[in-house]
User: Fold these one by one.
Assistant:
Number 1:
Amino acid sequence: GLYAAIGWFKAPKCVIAAMEYVTISASSWALRSDMRFKELLPSATSRRSWSFSVPGSLRCMATGIPFWSGRKAEKPQSRVDSMPMRNSKEESQQAAHGGVRTVVVPAAGMGTRFLPATKTVPKELLPVVDTPGIELIAEEAADLGAERLVIVVAPQKQEIMDHFGEFNVLQKRLLNRGKEEQAEKVSRANELIDAVAVTQESPLGLGHAVGCAEPALDAEEDAVAVMLPDDLVLPIGVMDKMVRVREEFGGSVLCAFNVTPDEVYNYGVFDVEDAERDIEGVEVKKVRGMVEKPAKEEAPSTLVATGRYLLDRAVFDALGRIEPGKGGELQLTDAIELMIQEGHPVHVVVHRGKRHDLGNPGGYIPANVDFGLRDEKYGPALYPALKEILAEFEAEHPEVLEREQQG
Ligand code: G1P
């Protein structure tokens, strides 16, 4: 009887103990899954979601991954942390007007021209020699003085962000083996700039992608830079000129490149006139209008938009008012054209340098040859190897030389 009575008292404790066991197991499982998640996205410690209205009935869910929040001790101090606070409105306006804090990188495209590679690897992670195109863009943005890269990604392309995470285990392993140079390559993307992801749920066009980035901007940012990761504009530095032009004329500034009349149908094309004033060392034009991918006969010029934009914040309002354009997509060009028609000043810096289009194999291969030849490790061997390949090809295809001689 005594044991039965004790059993009664014990029973609930057993139940409690069993429940505790289940709870502890469940939470340790959850912790383990969380750890698994964190291994996949090494630096992601919190996620924020928000939604906002974009043109017509379209809605875009944006998910921000503020990469190092809560892990500042582990991360090398970023320039955001070390920036002195602005203490007056004028200072703040000055900084926002001249400087670029955020660079938006639309990277949600499907990469169809790179299939089958892009079945599993986002095209932005394909390397130029050994460095993914998106890291080259991050370098250019950091060089401009930007603090944050807002990368617009598709839901199935979140692994682009992994490239900007910390890889402590790999780095330690490399350092333990005396591979300092490789360890430095591993940490470079993480140290360059703060990368934040914004998700574009559906591929509704470049204009829509840029619109998705608006919630990630700070209230005092009155301009935003956009860099298309497909475009390498060389030598680096055209954005600095664009910042100077915006300081002089206000409004928005784009980068123009001269192409042949047969190529204009691939681009946004500018209708230009002389700028109000010259700016030393910068070829600048005022834009009267802009049209997305016109037929050769309808193109207003052969000056086309390359992937560098310095846009006034007013662009988000214009993006909210345009209708789907070329290809049924919301085009950034159409928003800029709307702004021009409403009196917003738009200028272009005419770039006379080089441009590589990493968006298709036809441009990606020459970019690799160009960067490869200039690489101190691979260049010396690549040069004779290329000459040999060319000589062999010319012997097999004498018609290419004849065609070249005919001009
Ligand atoms: C986009 C723009 C186009 C611009 C081009 C530059 O086109 O819509 O105006 O000239 O980038 O690369 P996409 O190449 O995405 O078709």
Note: The longest helix spans residues 2-40.
Number 2:
Amino acid sequence: MSDLDVETTLNMLLREIKNIYHSELDAFYPKDEVDSFFYLVIEHYLDLERFVLALNPDLVITKTEEQPLFEALSQLRLERPIQYILGGTQFMDLELMVNENVLIPRPETEELVRWIIGDYEVSEIEEINILDIGTGSGCIAISLAKFLKNAQVKALDVSDKALEVAKQNALLNEVKVEFIQADILIDVLLKEKYDIIVSNPPYVRRLEKNKIKLNVSENEPDIALFVEDNEPLVFYQKIIEFAKTNLKKEGWLYFEINQYLGEETKALFENDFTEVVLHKDMFGNDRMLKGKLKN
Ligand code: SAM
Ligand code: GLN
């Protein structure tokens, strides 16, 4: 046998690798999720679309091509999120880079962004000034800058490492967002006033840690997720105080909230906001809140 023949006999069929994904991962994830991992991985590393196996069931891949597929598999086996393995995800159909320094954007957060876009797409305001607090990957700020015409967006985070990712994402999506490093729990002084302040701050209580998936609590940044049990609404209280001086007259504050604290969070709006709306997400959980600053 020549060297070439040996090489050929060692090459695997792509569908064999798919079978290995199932045999290794079906104990940890639902079968259709494993299918989706496999297709995301072959698309990312081999630029192969998901229907390729249907069209060409005997597709053979080389040793070099198979290597990243097995590396991704071993990380999935350790329950590392697929978005961190691939280094990216989609949000509002935009491509975003993610790494362990930022929360992986959630579908609920897309709903929050759509709520805002729905409220403002017919707005007559010439320039909509927006501030996103706790921007993480930049998902909210960047998608608002992209889809809301006339938006002028600023975004703030305490984490320099998160801001690095968010800046890259703004470049990647060709939008102008001004990023600010600041701790919202300390008095943040910004001269400007905004039409919209939006935030998806940390809101998971430590006591809820067992309610969220292990691969979330083990892999995503603590600083993005958790608040102390005795002060679960601390970010909301601080941001409301900030909004009272930094929203324009009749400006709107939008929040993503902890589903178990809907009424309590809404109560914080009572004195200074009007037209307050608590809104459920697609799973039927209290997830979003908005209110207009009283005159
Ligand atoms: N906006 C992103 C999203 O919706 O996917 C990330 C939201 S994540 C739940 C909360 C973000 O708040 C994290 O990026 C974290 O770094 C940031 N953060 C945590 N504490 C903060 C603080 N004291 N001041 C400003 N940002 C903070
Ligand atoms: N929705 C996220 C989760 O359930 C939490 C995001 C947040 O704390 N703002 O993991």
Note: The CA atoms of residues 34 and 85 lie 14 Å apart.
